[in-house]
Amino acid sequence: MLKIHNPATGALIAEVPESNVDIVTQRTRAARAAQPAWAATPLEVRLQVMQRFRAALVAELEPLASTLTKEVGKPIRQSRNEINGLLGRIDFFVMQAATTLAPQQLFDEGGTREVLSFDALGVVANISAWNYPYFVGGNVFVPALLAGNAVLYKPSEFATLTGLHIARLLHESGVPTDVFVPLIGRGDVGAALLAQDVNGVFFTGSYATGAKIAQTVGARFIKLQLELGGKDPTYVAEDADVKIAAESLADGAMYNAGQSCCSVERVYVHESIHDAFVAAFVETVRGFKIGDPGSEETYIGAITRAPQLDVLDAQVADALAKGATLRVGGKRLAGPGNWFEPTVFTEVDHSMELMREESFGPVIGIQKVFGDAEALRLMNDTRYGLTAGVFTKDEARARALLAKVNAGSVYWNCCDRVSPRLPWSGHGDSGVGLTLSALGIQTFTRPRAWHLRQP
Ligand code: NAD
User: Taking Cα atoms as reference points, which of 421, 418, 400 lies closest to residue 409?
Assistant: First the structure.
């Protein structure tokens, strides 16, 4: 049995049967058998199923948000935001799927036609993270199902109840039970899934697990997508609006207690506005209410995984030992559950872990810089490349800088933002492949090239 604990209190909230290797094998075989009929179902029917799933999310929004808050410790308002955000993503995929999946005639001359079609990959594994289970799961299973795939879905062991709700609602909406298959458990269940006959692996999670998965499936030449962590930087230039930049970046760093793949993790501020920026940033952070995730007023909830507290403690100790200045926070909160104060450091540099490795918590370093060239060099001094941003009044200057930053998504005067219309992808150790956008539908297909000659 998988024990589910509330990270805000430590209380045991559920015990759920785990899927063993036999179950994973049987369910994969059943998915393989069921997938051709699903792919042969008219797209119109699959679109209707997805619209019913959307309506079911709306109808059950409050209990679903409450479950998410209880099992991951996310403030209730942020849980609602996430489910509402998934509705917008479903709307995009439903609107876009027919155009994107339609065969394209690209040539017709002298009796010869060339046609490009998009077939479903087949059976795909969706191994998911806990921090935004509706988003990171939905980015895969919504377009994968619309494209005609069967999906073997392994929710994170820290978001299992949400994963089971997603499966129930998809089944009630008309996805056959063998076409969307939840597999419950920890990393060993994910590993068992990798050993199956699947046509693609779509993973969201840490670099360490992503690297293991790449080694395991690499030689099989199946489609592999890895959406991994980041150390996302933002540069605040001297002409930026200090208050707007500070408030926006404090939110980008601390929303969901910093447990977002695209959280702002490093800030570089021009020396001429550094002190004013730090004052506004710290004031904003002091205003964030930390506490009961079920309360409407709470902005910072619990840390979902207890081991992450050790990572945060170690980054704080390392930064202090190397001369950083602690402006606010810096330690765990006493009492039951997993809690860490929102924490801001200044006088930081790249010798510190805090500026090099993903914190994945409410901890941020602000570093003084003396100009664009230094900011750019520091932003690119990382093995990751998920997002990066620049705050300045000058669009041309921002675009010139952002064009040289090694990141899949770049932001001018904004941060921590994801759009269903644009592809979501990482450079370097932030991963390979993409989700979202029209490309994020095509990625669940195999293009077929048709050369057709009239006799
Ligand atoms: P994790 O790597 O610990 O776990 C992710 C999933 O992999 C879980 O379902 C887990 O059970 C499974 N797993 C673990 N070991 C496995 C193995 N050997 N084989 C197969 N599956 C295995 O990551 P996490 O703690 O759930 O997620 C946090 C990480 O995810 C952070 O680094 C965050 O930045 C990243 N993330 C990235 C994105 C993105 O879009 N780039 C989005 C959300 C989260």
Answer: 418
